[in-house]
Write a structure and sequence with these properties.
Layout: E1 8-12, H1 17-32, E2 36-42, E3 56-60, H2 66-71, H3 74-84, H4 86-99, E4 107-110, H5 116-123, E5 127-131, H6 135-142, H7 144-149, H8 183-198, E6 203-205, H9 209-223, E7 227-229, H10 243-246, H11 254-260, E8 267-271, H12 280-293, E9 297-300, E10 327-330, H13 335-339, E11 344-349, H14 353-362, E12 366-368, H15 375-385, E13 389-391, H16 398-410, H17 414-430, H18 437-451, H19 453-459
Parallel strand pairs: 1-2, 1-4, 2-3, 4-5, 5-6, 6-7, 8-9, 8-11, 9-10, 11-12, 12-13
Helix pairs in contact: 4-5, 12-16
């Protein structure tokens, strides 16, 4: 196992929960291999340095006001970051590369931070890309020009059930899409971030070979840059004690005591992540579907989840009390701990990549309700390719919710789905052990980063 000595890595995440968590996990992995770590971050959604005393942190000004952060969609927020952070980063790199007593072999940046490419090019500093989503969704993004040429994009409501012949196993409804008034801007951003990855010195993936082997093989051919699938990041360490530190929301750990009182594999855990939103009508249909299923449930209702409500105001009076302790609602949960708890039998998820991967690592079957972007791709793979979950993408209606929960808890399909989930859990564990695919890929990453130091040192 090769280790770094006197080497400092600079890492920067996109300032969203689903991007910050894997970057900090990656930083921990590389720190364990001997690298010194500096986390470069925006002031918006900045991580807490006190949680990582072994890292250095440097904030760069992004100029994002509270009003902008609360009103702009993710697409336009990303545009602002890419415009406003370029000059501050350039100033910081000029200082750190001239003053650092340690060698800086490369800059590791989130794939969506497009401004870092020209800055690194200016300093002749190699840039590695961290892709926080799966390889399967990246392949869908990389196919956007072809999909537009073939008429699948922009997505038309009348064609949602039509198979995408050039990109199996997808139907049109499974293609990545975001809620925006400017679909052309989304298309252009996707094309730019794919080209940015192609122009990098390599791509680091929070996935593992056995999960997305055929897609990784195709991407190696298409991108023609080194690829390092070293995931699942969060399973590189025996404990998940850092989970709460990477969260922008404080988890309510009281739910763990409640889980301790529940029967084995009896609980439906429901969480739609840190960004997704639902209507009041959908919220009530979910609530009654959960109640009517007669299964215990732990439900994460994040403040802001329900459009137009602060928190639980839409719930009928006495709803939880009438369940006799069968339901437990929190604002945020320690998800890795919840999914590893023996009482959890099903995870109802929005299929963000972190959630999907965490569920796979614990062998927990999924109910899939994707909202936007790569979530639709992840849900398709979970339900139709890996066969570790079932799809619930139609209109959220209490009867369908109840039926889907029962199907995964007591139905005829449940044994096969659980067996598939446990098989993937085993593969996720084996890949991290010595000789495993992710272990070997991490060795290659460390070795290749150390070989980059020469070109960097020549530049300075």
């Amino acid at each position: 196992m090769e280790r770094a000595k006197g080497e400092r890595l600079l890492l920067m995440a996109s300032p969203l929960q689903g991007h910050i968590t894997p970057l900090l996990n990656l930083a921990e992995i590389l720190f364990s291999r001997g690298f010194s770590i500096t986390i470069v971050h925006t002031l918006f959604n900045s991580p807490d340095p006190s949680s990582y005393p072994h890292f250095d942190f440097h904030a760069i000004a992004d100029g994002i006001s509270h009003a902008e952060a609360s009103t702009l969609d993710g697409l336009h927020l990303s545009d602002l970051i890419n415009v406003r952070c370029k000059d501050p980063l350039e100033e910081y790199l000029a200082a750190v590369l001239s003053q650092s007593k340690e060698r800086v072999p490369c800059f590791i940046a989130d794939a969506s931070l497009l401004f870092i490419q020209p800055v690194c090019h200016h300093f002749k500093l190699p840039r590695l890309v961290l892709r926080t989503g799966g390889a399967s969704s990246f392949l869908a993004f990389a196919s956007f020009p072809l999909l537009r040429q073939k008429g699948y994009l922009p997505i038309q409501e009348s064609r949602l059930e039509e198979p995408v012949l050039d990109l199996p196993p997808f139907k049109v409804k499974d293609l990545p899409k975001i809620p925006s008034q400017d679909p052309e801007a989304f298309y252009e951003l996707v094309c730019r971030f794919v080209e940015s990855c192609r122009a990098s010195s390599g791509v680091i993936w929070n996935t593992f070979e056995e999960l997305e082997s055929s897609v990784l093989t195709k991407l190696r051919q298409d991108l023609s840059v080194p690829m390092y699938p070293i995931g699942p990041f969060h399973k590189h360490f025996l404990t998940s004690s850092s989970t709460s530190f990477t969260s922008l929301l404080a988890p309510d750990k009281s739910c763990m005591s409640w889980l301790d009182t529940q029967e084995h594999r009896s609980v439906v855990y429901v969480s739609f992540g840190s960004v997704s939103t639902i209507s009041k009508v959908e919220f009530l249909e979910i609530a009654w579907g959960l109640a009517n299923s007669k299964q215990p449930f732990l439900w994460v209702v994040r403040p802001g989840l329900i459009r137009g409500s602060e928190w639980l105001e839409p719930l009928p009076s006495g709803f939880l009390e009438n369940l006799g302790g069968r339901g437990y609602i929190v604002k945020w949960a320690p998800q890795e701990q919840v999914l590893s708890h023996p009482a959890v039998g099903v995870f109802w998820t929005h299929n963000g990549w972190n959630s999907t991967l965490e569920s796979i690592c614990e062998g927990v079957p999924m109910i899939c309700t994707p909202c936007f972007a790569d979530q639709k791709v992840n849900a398709k793979y979970a339900s139709d390719v890996w066969k570790v979950g079932v799809d619930l993408q139609n209109k959220l209606e209490r009867g369908e919710v109840e039926e889907t929960i029962k199907k995964l808890m007591v139905g005829d399909e449940v044994n096969e789905i659980r067996e598939n989930a446990l098989n993937l859990k085993e593969k996720a564990s084996v890949c991290l052990k010595q000789g495993g695919s992710s272990y070997s890929s991490l060795d290659s990453l460390v070795s290749d980063m150390l070989s980059l130091e020469c070109s960097t040192s020549k530049a300075h």
